[in-house]
Amino acid sequence: MELSIGEMALIAVAIVVLFGPDKLPQIARDLGAGVRKMRGAVEDIKTEIMKETDNPVSEIKREIEKVKDAAKDFNPMKDIQKDIVTEPSVTNEPLKLKPADDENYEGPVSR
């Protein structure tokens, strides 16, 4: 709210006329104290709002970091590779190739 010099002078004259010059210092002190209390209350409210809005954001950020860390450790290929490596050793037999997959297979020989 912007007041011009003329508007401020008119307000000052109205206050002097209404309350008299004797009460003017007390009114100014009371007005200043009221403004300081209002500013303090506004700052307290701002601080409280910032605390309340900051907590959920920081909690969400922590949860995102936990998910990222879990994703770094997750390797589905690791389990598959273990199964592939351990499967032939469980049977203790060499893998037999199908005749179609074996390049050295010549098929039945007629004599």
TrEMBL record:
Q: Tell me, what's a Pfam family for it?
A: TatA_B_E
Domain of life of the native organism:
Bacteria
Q: Where is this region: Disordered?
A: 78-111
GO biological process terms held by the UniProt record: protein transport by the Tat complex
| Record keywords, A-Z | Cell membrane, Membrane, Protein transport, Translocation, Transmembrane, Transmembrane helix, Transport
**Lipid bilayer topology:** Single-pass membrane protein
Q: Which molecular-function annotation in GO is an example for this chain?
A: protein transmembrane transporter activity
List the Gene3D superfamilies.
Answer: 1.20.5.3310
Q: Where can this protein be found?
A: Cell membrane
Could you state one GO cellular component term attached to this entry?
A: TAT protein transport complex
InterPro entries associated with the record = TatA/B/E, TatA/E
What HAMAP family does the annotation carry?
TatA_E
| Entries under PANTHER family matching the protein | SEC-INDEPENDENT PROTEIN TRANSLOCASE PROTEIN TATA (PTHR42982)
Family designation: Belongs to the TatA/E family.
Q: Please give the function described in this protein's UniProt entry.
A: Part of the twin-arginine translocation (Tat) system that transports large folded proteins containing a characteristic twin-arginine motif in their signal peptide across membranes. TatA could form the protein-conducting channel of the Tat system.
Q: How does it assemble?
A: Forms a complex with TatC.
What is the protein name stated in its UniProt record? Sec-independent protein translocase protein TatA
According to its UniProt entry, this protein's organism is: Chryseobacterium luteum
